[in-house]
Design brief:
By secondary structure, this protein is of the alpha/beta class. Helix content is 26%, strand content 28%. The protein is globular and about 40 Å long.
Length: 141
């Protein structure tokens, strides 16, 4: 487990880029944090770290956004789901089988969908822009 502190959105994105550069294809990143904590900013950084040149936005209403390039990033937002059953209904296993990196916001809503090998990112608000970011499941210096 590693803990980092971010003073602004750009630093949160940079940490996401550092993480994703170390992730193998097929990795699942389970993200936790309150509304406005910076989960989507972190995913924006992940996309950049994977060499993807795309506009990253929260998939709150669409549930899933796919970012394609040299690598593939699937961005989920579980805020509107009532549980893991709904995630399986939209094809969770199919997404996993594609070998893409999957970033899942509001992971607490779908805990039963994880198999125990996910990387966990928890973002805590410490102020208007300051964040404490804890990453578990992968070494990141």
């Amino acid at each position: 487990m590693a803990t980092f502190f971010s003073n602004n959105e750009a630093e949160t994105e940079e940490l996401g880029a550092r993480l994703s550069a170390r992730l193998p294809d097929g990795a699942v990143v389970a993200m936790y944090g309150d509304l406005g904590a910076g989960k989507t900013a972190f995913v924006r950084g992940m996309a950049r770290g994977m060499g993807l040149d795309c506009r990253v936005s929260s998939p709150t209403f669409t549930i899933v956004n796919e970012y394609l390039g040299q690598r593939e990033l699937i961005h989920f937002d579980m805020y509107r789901l009532s549980g893991a059953d709904e995630l399986f209904e939209i094809g969770w296993e199919d997404y996993l089988n594609r070998g893409a990196v999957c970033a899942v916001e509001w992971s607490e809503k779908v805990q039963d969908a994880f198999f125990g090998d996910e990387i966990t990112v928890t973002i805590e608000k410490l102020g208007d822009t300051r964040r404490k970011i804890t990453i578990e499941g992968v070494e990141l210096c």
